[in-house]
Amino acid sequence: MWQPCARYPDPAVEVLDARFERYRILLAGVERLATGFRWTEGPAWFGDARQLIFSDIPNNRIMRWDEETGAVSVFRKPSNNANGNTRDRQGRLVSCEHATRRVTRTEYDGRITVLADSFEGQRLNSPNDVVVKSDGSVWFTDPAFGLNDYEGFRDSPGLPTHLYRIDGETGALTVAAADIRSPNGLAFSPDESYLYVVQSRATPHRNIVRFDLSPDGKVLGPSRVLIDCGPGIPDGIRCDEDGNLWCGWGMTPELDGVRVFDPEGIALGHIHLPERCANLCFGGANRNRLFMAGSQSLYALYVNTRGAL
Q: Using an 8 Å Cβ cutoff, are 132 and 110 in contact?
């Protein structure tokens, strides 16, 4: 059962490295904003509407939380079992859909534009998470996690589990990385010199890989395992303005929540939640409110940093 902390500082915010003290607000605690979902993912902040949208994948809907009233309502149903969401540089919603095995963009008038649904004549597997770079290119992961009757439709993968790039000018779809074992969450560093990708089927442990980007920002260069996640299960990731990685985390009650790492992969802190955290994003008026999509609930915490633009 969820019990908010009645005292500050909130013990749910654990400091693992003294440098994390600067990111903790002593008079802020973890809040549960809503509950009653089946599996939440893909939070994306719409500051112009003061709303957060997030996916409830098995219920085949995208939900909306209103900052002003705290009300939760359905943003879109059916959502084609949408998973990851983000906004492009024009403020439009970009979503990964399991059921239709595609990446879409919602236009200003509500029309849906398909950005990608196949590669070299084969249907995509189940696009999972997505980010948009400053040049307008769309990068997304395509594991096979949604090829089942709970989060999409049962089928066999037709393609390897690639990381893809959609060119912002031509719309051309290319494989950005072909050697990632079930890529999941992804995020650019604040200066876009690195791309971080969660490798969900790595052995012996799941890990987070850091890729260098080419000078023109279009091609991934050398990579290395930045974080060996050990028994933890990483999922969605986002960077703050200092380049720290905030990672959805879970596996056991001790590990459920958000694990924070510095740019070199050293663990700084942990935000404990009563559920596994799948994905997260920064939002609020100052981009300093961390929204966390738990298994069945949505949580938030004010922190002393801002999400990278």
A: no
Report the C-alpha gap between 307 and 241 in whole angstroms. 6
**Distance (Å, whole) CA 55 – CA 85:** 8
- Whether 3 is in a domain gets the answer no
Order across the sheet with 267-272: list the strands: 13-15, 267-272, 257-261, 245-249, 237-239
Domain tally, the chain: 1
pLDDT in tens, 249-289: 998 999 999 999 999 999 999 999 999 999 999 999 999 99
Q: What is the pLDDT of residues 214-235, one digit of tens each?
A: 999 999 999 999 999 999 999 9
Q: Which residues span the domain enclosing 115?
A: 15-302
In a domain, 307, yes or no: no
Dihedral angle sign, alpha carbons of residues 84, 245, 168, 108: positive
Q: Hey, what's the torsion of the CAs at 226, 232, 237, 239, to 10 degrees?
A: -60
Tens digits of residue pLDDT in 150-171: 999 999 999 999 999 999 999 9
DSSP for 78-133, please give it.
S-SSEEEEEE-TTS-EEEEETTTTEEEEE-TTS-EEEEESEETTEE------EEE-
Specify the residue for token string 């000078």. 215
